[in-house]
Design brief:
Helices cover 16% and strands 35% of the residues. By secondary structure, the chain is of the alpha+beta class. The chain has a four-stranded antiparallel sheet with strand order 1-2-4-3, with helices on one face. The protein is globular, with a radius of gyration of 14 Å.
Length: 89
């Protein structure tokens, strides 16, 4: 999340919404930010070129992709981004 807001003032919020579903049983997390849009699918296909012990960041999406049952990114009409992570249990 620090990359999404790196050029924005600290007063710009990042919102996190957590939903527990019962049918089917699922945990859904939505992270809303106001950062610049990016090519989500390309980022998932292109891992960091630095070895893990040298990279300062850039592992978050790869970790989420391994853990989540569904992972999606949407650029909203209000110029916010929404990252949705779903895990069924």
């Amino acid at each position: 999340m620090k990359y999404a807001h790196k050029d924005l003032p600290p007063s710009v919020s990042i919102e996190v919404e957590v939903i527990l579903g019962q049918s089917p049983q699922r945990l859904e997390i939505r992270v809303w930010d106001s950062g610049a849009p990016f090519d989500f699918e390309r980022r998932l296909r292109t891992p960091s070129s630095l070895p893990a012990d040298q990279a300062e960041g850039g592992r978050g999406l790869a970790i989420m992709q391994k853990i989540a049952d569904k992972l999606s990114y949407t650029r909203m009409d209000d110029n916010r981004n929404c990252l949705t992570i779903v895990k069924f249990y």
